[in-house]
Amino acid sequence: MLDATIISRVKKLSVADRLELIEAVWETLSPAEISITEAEKSLLDARLADLEKNPGDQVPWPEVQAQLRRLLP
After folding, report:
1. Residue 47 sits in which domain range?
2. pLDDT single digits (tens) 7-52
3. What does the DSSP assignment read for 46-73?
4. Are 69 and 16 in contact (CB under 8 A)?
5. How many domains does the chain have?
6. Which of 21, 45, 56, 64 has its Cα between 20 and 30 A from that of 13?
7. CB atoms within 10 A of CB 31
8. What percent of the chain has pLDDT over 70?
9. How many other β-carbons are positioned within 10 Å of the β-carbon of residue 20?
């Protein structure tokens, strides 16, 4: 369980810093630590198939990330 002090400190961060923190925490997880349902697996498989079928329709994550950062104050 998270300490209330940690949550209090996180709330004081800017939106950009909180998003960076989320990304940093997410990157600490291994695939074995993340369970997904069969429905989620099917959705991921469908998205991967779409990526392979239509590679030009995709936007790379760094580009999406840059666009989002430009929207933040």
Report:
1. 4-71
2. 999 999 999 999 999 999 999 999 899 999 999 999 999 999 999 9
3. HHHHHHHH-GGG---HHHHHHHHHHH--
4. yes
5. 1
6. 64
7. 7
8. 100
9. 13
For residue range 38-47, list pLDDT tens digits in order: 999 999 999 9
Q: Which two tokens stand for residue 17?
A: 């810093």
Read off the amino acid at residue 42: S
CA dist list (Å): 32 to 16, 28, 35, 46, 58: 28, 12, 7, 21, 27
CA 57 to chain centre: 20
Contact 21, 10 (CB under 8 A): yes
Q: What is the pTM of this model?
A: 0.54
Closest CA to 17 of 63, 25, 3: 25
